[in-house]
Automatic annotation (TrEMBL):
Catalysed reactions listed for this entry: a phosphate monoester + H2O = an alcohol + phosphate
Predominant place of localization: secreted
Protein name per the record: Purple acid phosphatase
InterPro entries for this protein: Calcineurin-like_PHP, Fn3_PAP, Metallo-depent_PP-like, MPP_PAP, PAPs_C, PAPs_N, Purple_acid_Pase-like_N
Length: 643
């Protein structure tokens, strides 16, 4: 959804904390005094100081984690909240330039102002989130004339030199030259370096093209000419084998426009994907990522584990989580943007608490809301790492991943901030034939998923329509009774006020194009995001509820139940005042869906709130294979009906 329009704020005093990303030798550490955000150095004040320690991160931690900040205040400082507000236009600059290794934990602003004559310390952790490798950095700031407009920023790389900044040459230089902000830089800290800024990070699993392939995708600073990437893996407790990995990256010129191509550009590092093949179903596998350097030494990540996927049709407990539009946020509220995804951490945290109680996740579009600020993808992959390193994290493409004018997206908007799909298609693996055409199918035991790409044409006659039909038709319902359709935009039904104000109840040409397919193939459930609220629809066909039941469905599949689950984290969207007669349950809070298939004839649906894990809405489906075969209106071939 669109960003809300806000005024751009300007800040007059900036304190920079410098992060250098040099190795121990430190040869690339340089003074930052000429960072030249519009002659900011002129304001350097001897009365202001900032100091950070330790200066080398990673001596305690393995690998290189993301940086997290936490502000802690001495008693004489009133400030409690930190934040940043983003203006919609012009795109707000990145005050703080982050290297690909560091997530965009960039700007800290004391909203209510610091007390005069005060100082405070800031803790920065290297966080492998689940208590693995956390390292704190204490930052001490002293500013006798502190005001509410004070900022602390992180600069990475610290050796940025404005005189090498050549705006449109398309090289990989961090691009802050055109920052419209004109802050006064009052102090610069010492530099902080990482022991190994190239370490492999943020593993994310995804189903491969076959049910018994698992893919591991991760990010590192090692290109293939420097080190060979691979995954070491195997059944838990047995000798491990190795599988090679492919490596992808992209350049600024791959981006379609600003800010991805300008102030938002960051070198993404290298994204590796390894294919773990021929897995035995239902076993726990352990894995870790590695890089072999040319001199034969190894760089290792931490170790992780996952449970391999069930055989298609396998009768066992299988649990699926579905949500959309989650995004990311920082725990202390500091961020370069306004808190535009206030529910993201609650959803993430609830899913981390629930690990072990679900088997696969579908994040159905609007993944990070990086919107062209590329380092935010690192922030996001760090945030979901506990989930994505443990269960397959399957994504769909949304407007904030793909849309860009004149770039082939079905909608002619700039919602992706110039990313035009490149980030989503590179940072996460999906088992699509062509990752630029973001539609795919995947099997998980008794489930068959058809994931559509609402940012490309789905109408009858389109390439995607043919895929959707083929995908739905390929579900063997005796073995895979639970057939699920997924798309980012609401191709089904929604009473969100945004649609209502346009006089619609979903994307134009959405269900009109697809409902015949859903009916013919007796799709159980359709899931959508895009509207940031929860709404469950009755089993429906051609705008008519085909059942007045709301909690226990049984027997023939007369219509499809559609669900909007776009309340993963992004600011919530209101509903139309009038509740359409097909709307069964609406909830304006953050949450996600959990599907539990007990066996081939019993499915539990739950809508769970992120804030407390409580189930707010639920129903069950009970039925036999014969109920799927039974002919219903428009649900059988005409020839079958003829006799
Ligand atoms: C950071 O501050 C804490 C508490 O004041 C202290 O215990 C710790 O040693 C400091 N760490 C560093 C690296 O300075
Ligand atoms: C603080 O600000 C006041 C008013 O602008 C100024 O007179 C004073 O010199 C400043 N103090 C320091 C230490 O910069
Ligand atoms: C920045 O780059 C220019 C041109 O290459 C060079 O003359 C200058 O010394 C550099 N500044 C620093 C601090 O390295
Ligand atoms: C191999 O090269 C790396 C990076 O240059 C270095 O850190 C490591 O010590 C080297 N190992 C050996 C065995 O020479
Ligand atoms: C489907 O429609 C038939 C005939 O109208 C009805 O008997 C049956 O109960 C319906 N099934 C469901 C699941 O609502
Ligand atoms: C629901 O409303 C639609 C029009 O919005 C109408 O066509 C349909 O008959 C109504 N269904 C029921 C069950 O009232
Ligand atoms: C399927 O699971 C449900 C819920 O656990 C149970 O009540 C039912 O007996 C099971 N059916 C079969 C055929 O196992
Ligand atoms: C997140 O969860 C906490 C704890 O339940 C709750 O107090 C807070 O309001 C939630 N935040 C949002 C944005 O829903």
């Amino acid at each position: 959804m669109e960003e809300s329009t806000r005024g751009v704020k300007f800040f007059t005093i900036v304190v920079f904390l410098c992060l250098a990303f040099a190795d121990v030798s430190g040869s690339s550490e340089q003074p930052l005094a000429d960072i030249a955000i519009h002659k900011a150095t002129r304001a350097l004040s001897e009365a202001v100081s900032i100091f950070a320690s330790p200066q080398l991160l990673g001596l305690q931690a393995k690998g290189l984690p993301k940086i997290k900040w936490r502000l802690t205040y001495r008693e004489n400082v009133r400030t409690t909240s930190l934040g940043w507000e983003r203006g919609a236009a012009p795109p707000l600059p990145i005050l703080v330039c982050l290297w690909w290794k560091v997530t965009c934990f960039t700007k800290l602003k004391a909203k209510q102002g610091l007390d005069f004559q005060s100082s405070f310390s800031m803790h920065m952790s290297l966080a492998y989130i689940k208590g693995e490798d956390t390292e704190w950095v204490n930052v001490t700031i002293f500013n006798p004339n502190a005001t509410a407009d004070d900022w602390v920023g992180v600069f990475s790389p610290a050796n940025f030199n404005s005189s090498t900044c050549t705006p449109d040459d398309g090289d990989d230089t961090p691009y802050i030259c055109t920052s419209p902000l004109k802050p006064n830089l009052v102090a610069i800290s010492n530099f902080i370096s990482f022991l190994n800024p190239k370490a492999p990070l943020y593993p994310r699993l995804a189903q491969g093209k076959s049910w018994n392939d698992m893919t591991v995708t991760w990010t590192s600073g090692y290109n293939i000419d420097e080190a060979v990437p691979f995954v070491e893996w195997g059944l838990q407790g047995t000798p491990q084998s190795r599988s090679p990995a492919g490596t992808l990256t992209f350049t600024r010129n791959t981006m379609c426009g600003p800010p991805a191509r300008t102030v938002g550009w960051r070198d993404p590092g290298f994204i590796h994907t390894s294919f773990l093949k021929d897995l035995w179903p239902n076993f726990v596998y352990t894995y870790r990522m590695g890089h072999i350097l040319s001199n034969g030494s190894y760089i290792w990540s931490n170790s992780y584990s996952f449970k391999s996927s069930p055989y298609p049709g396998q009768d066992s407990l299988q649990r699926v989580v579905v949500f959309g539009d989650m995004g990311k946020a920082e725990r202390d509220g500091s961020n370069e943007y306004s808190n535009s995804q206030p529910g993201a951490l609650n959803t993430t945290d609830q899913l981390i608490r629930d690990l072990g109680n679900y088997d696969i996740v579908f994040h159905i579009g609007d993944i990070t809301y990086a919107n062209g600020y590329i380092s935010e993808w690192d922030q996001f992959t760090a945030q979901v790492q506990p989930i994505a390193s443990t269960v397959p994290y399957m994504i769909a493409s949304g407007n904030h991943e793909r849309d860009w004018t004149n770039s082939g997206s079905f909608y002619d908007t700039t919602d992706s901030g110039g990313e035009c799909g490149v980030l989503a298609e590179t940072m996460f693996y999906v088992p699509a034939e062509n990752r630029a055409k973001f539609w795919y199918s995947t099997d998980y035991g008794m489930f068959h998923f058809c994931v559509a790409d609402s940012e490309h044409d789905w109408r009858e006659g389109s390439e995607q329509y043919a895929f959707i039909e083929q995908c739905l038709a390929s579900a063997d319902r005796q073995k895979q009774p639970w057939l699920i359709f997924i798309a980012h935009r609401v191709l089904g039904y929604s009473s969100a006020s945004g649609y209502a104000s346009e006089g619609t109840t979903g994307e134009p040409m959405g269900r009109d194009s697809l409902q015949k397919l859903w009916q013919k193939y007796k799709v159980d459930l359709g899931f959508y995001g895009h509207k940031h609220n929860y709404e469950r629809i009755c089993p429906i066909y051609e705008n008519q509820c085909v059942s007045s039941e709301t909690s226990h469905y049984s027997g023939t599949v007369n219509g499809t139940i559609h669900v909007v689950a776009g309340n993963g984290g992004k600011k919530l969207d209101t509903y139309s005042q009038q509740i359409p007669n097909w709307s069964v349950f609406r909830d304006l809070d953050y949450g996600f869906i959990k599907l539990t298939a007990f066996n081939h004839s019993s499915l539990l649906y739950e809508y769970i709130r992120s804030r407390d894990g409580s189930t707010q809405d639920s129903f069950t489906i009970s039925r036999d294979y014969r109920d799927v075969l039974a002919c219903v209106h428009d649900g059988c071939e005409p020839t079958t009906l003829a006799s």
